[in-house]
Amino acid sequence: MAVDNALSSPLGPPACEKDAKALQFLEEMTRNADSVQEDVLAKILTQNADVEYLKRFNLDGATDRETFKSKIPMIRYEDLQPEIQRIANGDRSSILSAHPISEFLTSSGTSAGERKLMPTIKQELDRRQLLYSLLMPVMNLYVPGLDKGKGLYFLFVKSETRTPGGLLARPVLTSYYRSDHFKTRPYDPYNVYTSPNEAILCADSFQSMYTQMLCGLLEREQVLRVGAVFASGLLRAIRFLQLHWRELSDDIESGMLNKKITDPTVKDCTLKILKPNPKLAEFVRMECGKENWEGIITRIWPNTKYLDVIVTGAMAQYIPTLDYYSGCLPKACTMYASSECYFGLNLNPMCKPSEVCYTIMPNMAYFEFLPHEPAGISQDSTPKLVDLADVELGKEYELVITTYAGLYRYRVGDILRVTGFHNSAPQFHFVRRKNVLLSIDSDKTDESELQKAVENASQLLREFNTSVVEYTSYANTKTIPGHYVIYWELLVKDSANSPGDEVLNQCCLAMEESLNSVYRQGRVADNSIGPLEIRVVKNGTFEELMDYAISRGASINQYKVPRCVNFTPIMELLDSRVVSKHFSPAVPHWTPERRR
Ligand code: AMP
Higher model confidence: residue 555 or residue 399? Predict the structure, then answer.
């Protein structure tokens, strides 16, 4: 399609008129980052001038940055807990936002073991959709012809609950997929999925995955990109194929749908696509029946040009496995977002994972940046927050946001490093999330949660006069799903009565029971995390670990046992000292309802 020259973009020639407009919008926003930010803050503060929270700090209707910065404190989720609780309990007054809180988005970040509840308002859906609408115009600059086929995306909804006051609480993607913005999106040849909406929206994760995989197999030659939100999700789909290719092939051969698919809407829509195809069934059996699954993605979906999955941050651990299954296809990390707010997108999505940087879109919220000091250097008691347009190249910052929905100077907990600028908008490398020790899927376990879990589990050792003298951990992603491995060095005081295999298995379960609800949901409902493993190591192992660290320059005075390890020589040392391995014998308790 010819594109009007007036609409061409500095990012490259747009694929179509619609893309040209999107790219032009991107240019405008990034050229005027600072004034857009000033405007966004003024809009948020005008809209919410009369809300209780802002009045408490005597903002008195001011909408300028200086007054805002001088009066409104920087906060964490815990500081907002009383307001969140009131809203959850049904207080409909304007506490945080002048617009009614339409629902809570349940973050994968937790507070006191439960998902954080992020207030949101209806109009935020438009902003999320706006960011989504920019992704394909950027991708089309790098990968031509995406309108000639489809995307095989494994997308899922998760369970929803209601707060005591009746507000829905669900993950942001569940909210988005269930919205009309997604369900009744207009046809766009560049954005056609093999998965029917009904399959994506089916809350039963087996039925949803089964039908999405089946539809992806049926249209295998049309598939041009394969994706999931996070790398862990795509690997879970591959694992699902490993476990279920026989049943899937039977369905393809006979044209009849597996009896386990009972959801009527899912059944109806799948049966419209499913026709007997013995040749395809034979192909799937032949490929999946091979012992070697290397390159399976490109063998089954030969026209795949790239994988669309986030492999930055904690997901980087999955890059080698994705490369193995895909024959090193490019991995596109397209966007950076959270329950609190969608932040921005990657303007060069086909770059190497290590080079991914996200451009924060200045229209999404008001962004501030807390200079991040390396561990050991004390933070200024009144640190000065830096504006989006003022961040410095090479420096690290913690992201602080002010949103239309009523978060004011809220610390997200992500550490970002400035790697460059697009026009006047900075681009950031996602460095890490603060305080996360272990993560397999969207679970995030911090040091104190791990400590508590070890303490709880070690109660079971008391009657054996045994204690845990040292421990460390690592996220084992060599298995699919991955699982937590905890190394324990035990002090057994009475060797005639030492804890046996069964007790240590129960210790694994006790640890899982004390981990946060996102972890337990991953174990129980999503099957995205495997049983926790305890590896008991020989006495003296942790001393050897210290000797090793000191030999590499650590100071004896300052040495602390690392609570998580991922350095190969250290893991080899630990593994060579393992005397026994134990796994959780059951899944921990989890229900969608919150404990508090
Ligand atoms: P949630 O609130 O559960 O949606 O989780 C949001 C968090 O996921 C963010 O604050 C980041 O820590 C992480 N995250 C989201 N997008 C990315 C990305 N593209 N790369 C790395 N981490 C991400």
Answer: 399
